[in-house]
């Protein structure tokens, strides 16, 4: 299978840095998909080989069509820290931070929009480019809407795509219930379409909906965490295709755990298959790629499962609990009728009595604080990603080449010495050869190391970049609500709202603020755990790496002698 | 003191490699002399900063004059493995290997001359350039002749330059005898001026000269090593100047040891001062530079002291033993009258009776073997030097910068986290800051490491490059002798020589071959020791380096927690 790709955007190589300049529309051959760190190795028609950002190319489709092949933004954009599971929106390709600066009433966000896009070295990194140059990078932050055309039909009619395939052959007993289902997990109307008015001025709360309580925890307002926690295991990827092979996808088996609070244990462990659009034509790199996608899906599913609000949403629970097609369809129809979507999610949020209503100033201060923090963290995370991407490139490119050259030079000298004809040469030449081979080993270790440590650091930060990308919109809605409340007196004077409605609006802004605070506290708590964990893992692997090198060198050292 | 330098040769920077392109005649400011590995950091008039090969620039003289500033070839070219201390010659700037291919009767050396000069990466390294492009690099392999103009007057008249300075203030007792002397250690006529005929056809041996015996050792013909060995310590560099400050130099104190075989112990330890032309205007890097020169001088003096033939030469012994000006002048005049210089040194060499005369075929085979080996080793050594130079640049340039960026990114994220306002943040932020500082430490360690290990590996190989550079001429004389003996019958037939003279010629070629074999065995024995030693040192330091990093990371790791 020829592994070709089309270049989406011009990329100018930094000279001497193992990169390859490519032009928009150019067809290149992918020579190594497993570079990692956001790079692939490609060859152009002139036979030149070098690294290209993987986001700048799109894999050619064997059938002539094309799908976004790596689609790295998929999980990023799905990961949500919004105040509920129903706060996603189609961002239609616009940078969430940029969108926010447009929507929000100005002031604080100016220097935000003016944020330089390049890295320290003057290069524009791919990640930065995503969030800064929407016109020329249409897939940037496409978010949940990106694959809508493909997934809408799955949602509406599972049968048309070979969904719900019975896979009874996979195993006996409980596994009989395994079903294949395609799902877009982010079909929720967003905040910005409606704005906060719908909620702030709504006449009555939702009927018969379970409330989402916020109580006062040690760190401030927090969500109520369910006693049992949803969880699931993503595994066993399988390739499928539709439209007579024109489009292909990978199905992943998702196994929910049984001890789920909201779901009857009677269902037992069921196997579902969650499919994602496949990156086709990856040849020998496919396996690695699918593994990475699976890891990301696992990470995202786990994060969603552990989010107290998202995991309690009807549709999410349905996905976990359905056992057959009928279940799924029924549940889906019910979920589609849910009115507490968009900003109306706040109508089911209920701060406990110990939490007094906040005045507008407090609401505003909290909002500003979260805004500053999430923006600063977004910058910090992107900075680390840029640094990591550069480091990855060095570790897989020039550095191992250099160690290899050192190794070769030692071995070369050894073979020259071996030709001296002088007696008693063997000890030195054996030792020199061993030292040379050790440096070749080190070269290989250096090249393979990023996948063992930097990979996870990058993945975590990529996930957080995605999470942080949801905040501008969330904060934007809060800011809009604050502005609305500020106009309260004027609106009352103009008889657009009544005085009691103005009071309700203020109270509801307070509820929104509590929801945001609870969400931030959830975010902080997860963040502290996640960064501790990933840093431990990173440093553990780094320690092993350096210790192994030292050990190898000690072995080589022992062979030299100056008796 | 402004640290400026004039560019001698155009240098085209490899882009993205931290190098600076410079043009011939351009004046640059040296911003960092202590990069090492053959590089200095310079700034051009447009303010651009980058690395330039130190051999491509010449430091400006404050007084308007100029001296070859780093003069790295000095010791290289002085280090000799020729068959005696009197085999040096002015090569007048020509590549010794190239000279050899011209002098020697062709055939084997063709592919030698066609040897590519660039490195694997297509760059022309400075060392390669030295030996390949004599026209554009007039100082290349200038050898002993380079400083003749400066040092001849010292040799002829010490008083004119402040030589023989009494430095009684330095210490009492034995140190009273300390004297300052300037010496060029390579004022010997070379082989190629005379060719081998002088020796092959000389009528009689030298009168009253002590013979240099060669005996059969375990590894073949070997020199007789003196019971006591000359040795000396080079220390205490002092700056001096002459010509009203226009030219400056560094004087080094050379202290010979007392247990010298040929030198009466009655002299006791005397202190001499050996001066070398100074690289002026080095500013804050001067100290480091002088230290490096001193190390090289020490290495070279030790090597000469341990060479059984060189250390027994009159002039070398004189330098070690003289205690005052009168001694020196007397000895010098005697040495100047020595007739056993150039090829005539073979006339004092005497293979012991156990060593039978070699026939011409054996002589030729040995010569070919040494020629192949020394050429191959010269290539191997230069390859290692090129690799080392590239590695040095990476270790002192891009790599620590990257570790610094990683460290900064961690610390940056830590300070963002610190601003969260969330309780229980301190443990993570402290740990992240510590991890960040650890990577900054690692950056510094990486940048400083080459001076601790690669430096010595490079120095040893540089020394061997110098030693190997003497072989083409030596082998050339042997090849010429072989050709001469081959013509023997023809010469007898033409009555140019007598039949007994022809027999003498063959016997003398055999003596020359024994001398070369003894010298090669001396070279091999030293080489095996030197490379074992330097590899041990290199690997020891590398082990320490990696272990220290692992230890630092372990410390940082311990601060993270996922309770």
TrEMBL record, chains A, B:
GO cellular component terms, semicolon-separated: cytoplasmic vesicle; plasma membrane
UniProt entry tagged with the keyword Protein transport: yes
GO biological process entries: cleavage furrow formation; endocytosis; endosomal transport; plasma membrane tubulation; protein transport
Keywords on record: Protein transport, SH3 domain, Transport
Superkingdom assignment: Eukaryota
Pfam families in the record: BAR_3_WASP_bdg, PX, SH3_1
Entry annotated with the keyword Transport: yes
Ranges of biased composition (kind: Acidic residues): 146-156
Biased composition annotated in UniProt, kind: Polar residues: 107-139
MF terms (GO), sorted A to Z: phosphatidylinositol binding
Sequence segments annotated as region (Disordered): 107-173
Record domain SH3: where: 1-62
PANTHER family in the cross-refs: SORTING NEXIN (PTHR45827), SORTING NEXIN-9 (PTHR45827:SF2)
Family per similarity comment: Belongs to the sorting nexin family.
Name used for this protein in its record: SH3 domain-containing protein
Species for this entry: Denticeps clupeoides
